Amino acid sequence: MSKSTWLIFPNRILQRILLPMILLVLVSNLLTLAITYIGLDGELRKQDDTLLSSDIELPTLYVQNEMASLKADLQQAANFPALQEFVRWELSDSRLADIRSAQIEEWRGRVNQLFKGVLQAKSSYVQIRLISADGTETVRVDRYGDDDELRVVSGTQLQNKGARNYFLKASKLDGEQVYFSSIELNREHGEIQEPRQLVVRAASPIFDPSSGERYGVLLINKQFNGTLRTLASLVDHDRHLLMVDGEGRYLLHPNRTKTLLSDNPEGSNFHEDFPVLAQQYSKRSDEIFTFGQYRIAISKIDYGSERSVHLILVRNSTALVQVRDRVFQQTGVLLLILLGFALLISLLTARRIANPVETMSNAVLSAPHKPNLAATIPPRSPSELAHLATSFDAAYKQLDDSQSQLRLEMQEKDKAKAELVNKLELLDLKNAELQQFTYIASHDLQEPLRTIRSFVGVLSKKYGAGLDDDGRQMLGFVDEASLRMQNLVRDLLDYGRIGKQTDRKPIDLSKLIEDV
């Protein structure tokens, strides 16, 4: 055989073995890689969105509870019997001026004591005031004494708040309605107080319990600095929590110079910093948004009839992308290894087949009338080639060896079928490994949740007696949220198992919906 024939003949065998094997490995693994990449990316984003939604739920509930508590305390204070008696004597037209004056002072003292009790019970409350219909403060207790001691303000120190917006708004309310101001810097006599405090004011109208005559407004000032510190402590270090008011001003931000509490604020505004995102969340609140490399959860909190703030939880998704890319790279390396292994096996198989065939071909060319092909087959050659040589020898002796040749061809087909079955088994193995990876990932996701629930149980058991109702309620919220998340992960694992051992068949969805 010439050199050119030597090169072409084994190359054809190599092509027939190598190309299908490479294509099978390449297509199956590329398909596996694509499914893994898409599924992992979607699952990671879904899990991240679930975690973001869960993480912003606790700060949202905390702010809602703070506002609800402020409203409840104000309504309770408005119903103090001592306050009602003070209002009744203030509005009375008794002709006995001395008696009226004495009664007013007596009940004023009791109201002062009750107001001091409210401030002592809630350290976040800085002022509680009773304002008459003309805007003049008649009773005021605050924390602006020496060393932040409680003090009762009286005489000329009482101010007129008739022109303040919160007084005008609250004066128009009926019954036990409550007006909430925006969260803003505390001011006295028009000047910002130092150290700076963010306050929210809750005001409710006061009426004479006997005549129903409007007396004025009861007002509680709540400082928001402590609330903001608590909110910042509720999120992990890899997340940032922002709070903006209805005008887009930052109440809470990792960079304090951007907030209203800064001594020299930069005038930053969320609507100006993120105009596109601000437009989106104004139309679709309580959703997860993507902004560049950040995943953002936004929760709108309404308080009062016309006030709201937005909590914005920001997480850098770089770690999420790194996990996805690392899995993609590892799968890509595995694909290259499989391709190299397929190439090596194909080359060895082709050479093992080509060499004996080449020897047989030379024997036929050298002795075309009576070749002894069986003697040309090396001892370690595949048995199929020995059968082929024997068949060729017999073909020269008799013409009925065609049946033997047919059996040999059937053996070759069986070998090809066995190789295909092996490749399909390899594909099934890779799919099983992928399913096992999903199971392990879902199982490991439950471990942090069990830890959270365990520690919540320890906190409740060990320190529950020292917590107030709000604290125990918040621990309950954490436990409930962790349980829900654990159930979600478990449901995800159950969902991944659906259909593993079930024969699939088409169903009529219209009939199914009708039955439901």
Description:
The protein is of the alpha+beta class and 516 residues long. 59% of the residues lie in helices and 15% in strands. The chain has helices at 3-78, 81-91, 97-121, 165-171, 225-233, 270-273, 275-283, 318-366, 383-397, 402-463, 469-497, 509-515; strands at 125-132, 137-142, 151-153, 179-180, 184-185, 187-188, 191-192, 198-207, 214-223, 239-245, 250-252, 288-291, 294-303, 307-316. The strands form three sheets. Strands 1, 2, 3, 4, 5, 8 and 9 form a seven-stranded antiparallel β-sheet that branches. The protein has a five-stranded antiparallel β-sheet with strand order 11-10-14-13-12. Helix 1 packs antiparallel against helix 11, helix 2 (81-91) runs antiparallel to helix 3 (97-121) and helix 9 (383-397) packs antiparallel against helix 10. The chain starts with a helix and ends with a helix.
The residue fraction in helices comes out at 55-70%
- Tell me, what's the shape? rod-shaped
**Euclidean distance between termini CA atoms:** 76 Å
Count of DSSP-assigned helices: 12
How many E-type strands? 14
| Averaged pLDDT | 79
**Poorly predicted residue ranges:** 1-10
Q: Report the sheet with the most strands, covering strand number, pairing sense and barrel closure.
A: 7 strands, antiparallel
Assign the structural class, choosing from mainly alpha, mainly beta, alpha/beta, alpha+beta, or little secondary structure: alpha+beta
- Give, in order, the helices and strands: HHHEEEHEEEEEEHEEHHEEEHHHHH
